[in-house]
Structure formats: C-alpha cells, structure tokens
Automatic annotation (TrEMBL):
GO terms for cellular component: nucleus. It holds the Pfam family B3. This is TF-B3 domain-containing protein. The keyword rRNA-binding does not apply. It comes from Lolium multiflorum (Italian ryegrass). Residues 37-133 form the TF-B3 domain. Residues 7-18 have a biased composition (Basic residues).
Amino acid sequence: MASTSRTRTRRGRGRGRGRGSGSSSLPPPPSTPPLIIEEFFIVVYEDPLVKKALPKKFADYLDGQEPAKVYLRAADCGPHLWTVEVLFDGQGRMYLDKGWENLAIVHGVDFGCYVHFKYEGDDVLTVKVFDGTMCRKYYYSDDEDTDDESDDDVKPCIHPL
C-alpha cells in the first residue's frame, strides 16, 4: 500500500508543476494563414436577372483592389468573357450588376440554381451553373473548329445540351 500512495503523490505533484509555471510542452498555435478565397457559390433565391450579391469573404479578399468590373467565363465554353459591372455598397458587400443579366439569360440561370465561381485572378471568374437538382448545366458552342475562323468570331456557348 505504501507504494500506491507514493505513486499518487508523485503524479499529483507532476501535474501541478506544469500548470502553474507557464511552461508548456505543447507547440505554439500555428499562425493564421492568409485569407485566400478562390472558389465560392451563390444560390439564386430571387429574380435571377437582378444584381447578385457575392460572399462577403470574397469582397474582403479583394479589399483595396475593388474592381469596377469583372470578367465572367462560362466553364468549358472557350475564351468568351462576359463583362459585368461590380458594385460595392460601402459596408463590405459586393454585387454583380450590369452585364450579369446577359450571362444569366444565355446560360439558363433560374430560381433555385447554384452558381459556382472560381477566381482566376486579374478580375476573371470562371462560372459553372447547376440546376435545382444540383446537376451541372452544360453548354456547347455553335462554332466548328475550322482553320479559317479567327478568335474574333468566337461565339459564346449559348445552347443547353
């Protein structure tokens, strides 16, 4: 029995020393990584053709570099970029405004759609549209790949499959 009480006493003293001394065997907490927002989505709950609010975290990411417009590229639809004006409300919110409605109409953005954005840098966002069943909408271009067509003749992907 004597050995049992000595063990308990030793354990108790060992725990007390570590707590009160301020020294810890735990590593310091990791530093906060930089805020990097590359991908996000919005859900279309209201009129799909009116300005759309982007996540506040994304607006915060662009703080100090707030563009007057962004360029949206529908994923897998070639080089066509949709120019969309951007509004900031002064309270940290960012909205897609004029130009958004054109992309929304052409790519079938409707109530209940999920729109996925990937920030590519240089004010370019790649866009993927998912319908209300969470399945991606795919589009194709009318253009045929021929040698005599230039990039100036590229049409946006406008026809849903």
